[in-house]
C-alpha cells in the first residue's frame, strides 16, 4: 500500500477499520518512516502491528 492510499482512507494497521474521525494514533514507522495509523482500541490492547511498506512489527 502506498502512502497516498493510506492518506486517502486511513485504516488501523492492526484491525483494518477506518480511523477517520476516531481517537486514533498516527506515527512514523521506526524503520522506514512510513505513516502508520492505529485505532484507540488496538493501542489500548497493545495489539501487534506490521508496517505495510517494510514489514517492521511492533506492539
TrEMBL record:
| InterPro entries referenced in this protein's UniProt entry, alphabetically | HVO_2753-like (IPR044720), HVO_2753-like_euryarch (IPR049683), HVO_2753-like_ZBP (IPR011668)
User: What domain of life is recorded for the organism?
Assistant: Archaea
Q: Pfam families annotated for this entry?
A: HVO_2753_ZBP
Where does the record place the Small zinc finger protein HVO-2753-like zinc-binding pocket domain?
12-55
The protein's name is Zn-ribbon RNA-binding protein
Organism, by scientific name, is: Halorubrum californiense DSM 19288
Amino acid at each position: 500500500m502506498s502512502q497516498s492510499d493510506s492518506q486517502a482512507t486511513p485504516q488501523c494497521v492492526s484491525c483494518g477499520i477506518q480511523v477517520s474521525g476516531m481517537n486514533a494514533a498516527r506515527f512514523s514507522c521506526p524503520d522506514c518512516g512510513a505513516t502508520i495509523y492505529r485505532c484507540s482500541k488496538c493501542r489500548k490492547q497493545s495489539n501487534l502491528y506490521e508496517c505495510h511498506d517494510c514489514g517492521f512489527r511492533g506492539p
